[in-house]
Amino acid sequence: MGVEYKIVVELPSEDIAEKILGRAGGGAGRKGASGFDFRSPGNSGQMPDAIASVEPYGFYFCSFSGINGLSAEVLGFIVAAAAAYGTVLVEDLE
Description:
alpha+beta; 6-stranded antiparallel beta sheet
């Protein structure tokens, strides 16, 4: 599938988590039924560069393009923004 991470953090609300994802990647994410899809301008393929969703533990993140470019930017932003609310633990799900 892709490179998957569980980003564990206690956030004050789901609304704050949604706002973090909405700003990630410079606002490049498109919100869908199961979370946000992030697609770089040059990606016209079937799969986005990455996806992220709000989960009870924090966030789920999956990169389909390796951890570089837009995927790395989105992951870094999520972790940094979440750290403003407490300790963040990033778990590799492989």
